Amino acid sequence: MIRGNIKILFILFLVMFLFHSMPITAQEVEDESYFFLQTSLTTYHWNRNPDRNNKQDLIGLEYHKSNSKLYGIAYFQNSYFQPTWYIYAGKVYQYKEISNFNLYGKLTYGIISGYDDENGKYSSYMNDLGTFPAVIPSIGIGYEKFSFEVSLFGVSGYIANLGMKF
């Protein structure tokens, strides 16, 4: 378990280094691009199958550009307790600001990898594919550096995440 966590930390630091080493224009410096680190709080599956994982242990890192576009990578335990990666891009849609609270929507799209059928053990089409494209819609509320988001994963359920800008 510790060895797997070291791999994850290494990959996250590598991604941060790559994003940090990208050329930045003077316009972008003025426009407040930022990183967003998040983790999962809870997961809910609509079908309430006791064999499903409701503790994803998600850790994700996003780079938000000043034009509302974002790029990210997330590691989590999928619904079948398998280590899974989501590499994605997307966009944040600002909805409304009330006092210091910011309501927004987010749409990400990318590739999910890590599902394994384990010799026909699972009936999910995702396990047959292993790696597949995904689109994940989210809604969120932000306050200063912190945000709370709820993301739908297909027709299976939702995951609630807490994150922080830096």
Structure, explained:
- The mean pLDDT is 85.
- It is built from 3 helices and 8 strands, in the order ααβββββαβββ.
- An 8-stranded antiparallel β-barrel has the order 1-2-3-4-5-6-7-8.
- The two termini are 28 Å apart.
- The chain has a single domain, classed as Porin, CATH 2.40.160.
- The radius of gyration is 17 Å and the shape is globular.
- 17% of the residues lie in helices and 52% in strands.
List keywords for this structure.
Porin; Sn-glycerol-3-phosphate transporter; signal; 166 residues; 17% helix; alpha+beta; 8-stranded antiparallel beta barrel
Layout of helices and strands, plus pairs?
Elements: H1 2-20, H2 26-30, E1 34-45, E2 59-64, E3 69-77, E4 83-98, E5 101-113, H3 125-129, E6 131-143, E7 146-153, E8 157-165
Antiparallel strand pairs: 1-2, 1-8, 2-3, 3-4, 4-5, 5-6, 6-7, 7-8
